Amino acid sequence: MNSTESTKTPHARKRHLWLLLAAVPVLLGAGFCAARAHAADDGFGFGPPAFGGGGTPEQHKEFMERRLDKMLSMLKANDSQRTSIKAIFERMFAEMQPIHQQHKQLHDGILAAFTADTVDRAAVEKLRVQAIALMDQGSQVFSKALLDAAQVLTPEQRQTLAKFIQGHHGRHHF
Question: What whole-number distance in Å separates Cα of residue 77 and Cα of residue 171?
């Protein structure tokens, strides 16, 4: 324990604890809203369809395909690389579809449990654990696609892409 912690009054420690506890539902709610926007049948994110948000799953896929084409052009990918990487990402989209549908069902279940007359904490916790497992499953599918694509690109292309990503960190667009 450092000196600042030892000098805090019990009231200050309680206030910090309440602020921390109040932040948890806000963060969970924000996470669920973001996931819902991504997985919902009527939209895949924030913003207009032209920027990958809103719209239908088909519009989201078209947007991601345009981003992929732009990235491949920037990397000066040859026709063979383009064909291979596009096939990898088609497979990824197909594998992610049931995950998105399951996530929507989990979200709806959490929302129903939260808005019930009596909140069943055990049921919500069970749904939360399932949602985390589903996110992990989606992350594995995405990582596999990225690693498969990395095998198609040359080391120089991967370095170019890494530099581009570092230069645009936090800017969510190509």
Answer: 23
- Per-residue b or e along 59-96, where b marks 16 or more CB atoms closer than 10 Å to that residue's CB: bbbebeeeebeebbeebebeeebbebbbebbeebbebb
pLDDT, position 54: 57
* Residue 148 CB partners (closer than 8 Å, separation 6+): 88
User: Whole-number mean pLDDT of the chain?
Assistant: 75
Domain extents in the chain: 47-165
> Which H or E element spans position 72?
helix 57-74
Going from the C-alpha of 59 to that of each of 17, 41, 65, 140, 141, the distances in angstroms are 43, 11, 10, 24, 21
Q: With 60 as the cut, is the pLDDT of residue 11 above it? A: no
The yes-or-no verdict on residue 156 having pLDDT over 90 is yes
Question: Does residue 144 surpass a pLDDT of 90?
Answer: yes
User: Measured between alpha carbons, how far is residue 140 from residues 37, 58, 95, 135, 149 in Å?
Assistant: 21, 22, 11, 9, 14
Distances in Å between the alpha carbon of 104 and those of 39, 60, 107? Answer: 6, 16, 5
